[in-house]
Amino acid sequence: MLSHQVLARADESAVLEPVRLVVTTVSLRKGIPLVVVREVHREGDTTLRVPLTGGTDHRIHGGNATATTLFHDALTAALPEERDPAGSILVTVEDEHGVRTWWLIAGGAAFAGLYVAHVWWTAVAHGGVLAPYL
Questions:
Q1: What is this structure's pTM?
Q2: Which of 39-48, 86-95, 123-132 is the least confident region?
Q3: Taking Cα atoms as reference points, which of 95, 106, 104 lies closest to residue 26?
Q4: Rg of the Cα trace of the chain?
Q5: Where are the domains of the chain?
Q6: Which single residue of 37, 53, 89, 121 has CA 20 to 30 Å from 105?
Q7: Which of 32, 48, 2, 29 shows the shortest CA–CA distance to 98?
Q8: Helices (H), 1-134
Q9: Residue 98 CA neighbour count, 13 Å, CB half
Q10: Smallest Cα–Cα separation from 34: which of 46, 23, 47?
Q11: What percent of the residues of the chain are helix, what percent strand, and what percent coil, each to the nearest 5?
């Protein structure tokens, strides 16, 4: 595999790296080593079910059927011959709330700045004086 394979949907993405599968949602980032993936199953046109050797299943949702099929084929081809029975113990989970919080703060600050600029422009355009109010 020369480059990472990516399967994306609006709020979720999966990246197939040489030794692991990384699934990112709005709130979580899961790293699944390929040695604990038992197999890959299609569920409908745009969903993959990934059962692990420990018995846990993970689902990956794609944006369209063609991309999901290609990702399924790439993931199946990347699976190693030998599996580790540890299963979900080797899966890493990281919190992604920091990214969402940053966007909310930046968006709120931008809205407040635009509102103040609009009020100032309206007052100036209509001959008002803002100095006593600021």
A1: 0.69
A2: 123-132
A3: 95
A4: 23
A5: 5-95, 97-133
A6: 121
A7: 29
A8: 65-78, 97-125
A9: 3
A10: 23
A11: 40, 30, 30
Expressed in angstroms, the distance from the first to the final Cα of the chain is 61
Pairing of strands 47-51, 12-16: unpaired
Please check whether residue 32 is in contact with residue 52, taking contact to mean a CB–CB distance below 8 angstroms. yes
In whole angstroms, give the CA distance from residue 70 to residue 47.
12
> What confidence tens digit (pLDDT) does each residue in 65-79 have?
999 999 999 999 999
- Distance in angstroms (rounded) separating the CA atoms of residues 26 and 10: 10
Q: How confident is the model at residue 80 (pLDDT cuts 50, 70, 90)?
A: very high
CB-CB contact of 6 with 70 (8 Å): no
Q: Return the CATH number of the domain spanning residue range 5-95.
A: 2.30.29.30
Q: Which two tokens stand for residue 110?
A: 């931008």
Contact 34, 21 (CB under 8 A): yes
